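Data deposition worksheet. Section B asks for the primary sequence of the deposited chain exactly as it was used as input, without tags or linkers unless they were present during the calculation. Section C holds the resulting structure in token form. Section D is free text for depositor observations; keep each observation to a single sentence. Incomplete worksheets are returned to the depositor.
Section A, Depositor: J.P.
Section B:
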Amino acid sequence: MLFPSRTPFSSLVLPVVLGSILLGPRLLPWFVGFDMVMLTICVSRQESLTGRVLGAATVQLAVACVVLLANLQRARLGVAGLRGESMFVDLRDRILDQAHIPDLPAGWQVESALHSAGGTAFAGDFVVASRSADGTSLQVVVVDVSGKGEAAGTRALLLSGAFGALLGALPPAGFLPAANAYLLRQAWDEGFATAIHLCLDLTTGAFEVRTAGHPPAVHRASGTGRWAVLHTEGPVLGLLDDLDLTVRRGRLDHGDAVLLYTDGIIEEPCRDLDLGIDRMMGEAESVLRGSFVGAAGRLTTTLGSRDDDRAMVVVRRT
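Section C:
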């Protein structure tokens, strides 16, 4: 930079950008400060302060301010840019992996799908699934955290990890009360959630469904081709100390299916929820008559509001 006629001082922006990626939050401000000193020296050595020179200097100053503001946010994490982002991605992937449906024995099919309001990987809806150690039972939980999109994504990530630890470690009747107690301990201003819990015996097809302020599951009987809404009662998680839950029991025979979903699937402006459930069952009837592969994804894409998170789990006995 001692030869301004040969080396443009605008090249000073490159070290700032690289520093924002590679340096830690403590060292980066000092590095940016040194770069700004060099910028000042370079500008002072220009033969004339034309509008082009001042414009280039202003752009570099703006880039430095943006880098420092971003560094203030990253300083809360305490690691450098790429490492911090990779750590967040790894954390997200590990937690969301709990939504993976375990492999099931022959005769069973399960699919899940999730679409966020903002189209990101973070959403206020999530799924947690667990298969017992002896392989005879499957538990699936679909949760809708208050809020939507990225605003609810951080709470959903935390809750999915906690609920995943509780699921399978407790008897089916104890899961929702334990999840409610966990939410109450967080004391969040907007810390409530709704949930539906399915416990399925993979040997006999017997199942239990419990809900906490959540839309009911629906059951399709292949023998009659009829759909039944499995109404259960229970308060929203995170509001009351004691949960008064009801349980709905049934059985999945060969060809039967059960659907778990969030309210984003059935809610639309100026439409009653019961009408939304009826429409969902109609769409599911046509989808399940075809290939089961991708059934949950097709339903979440077709149904509900694009401005809300949507999640669905479809379980079928073949």
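Section D:
The chain has a mean pLDDT of 85.
Residues 9-78 form one domain.
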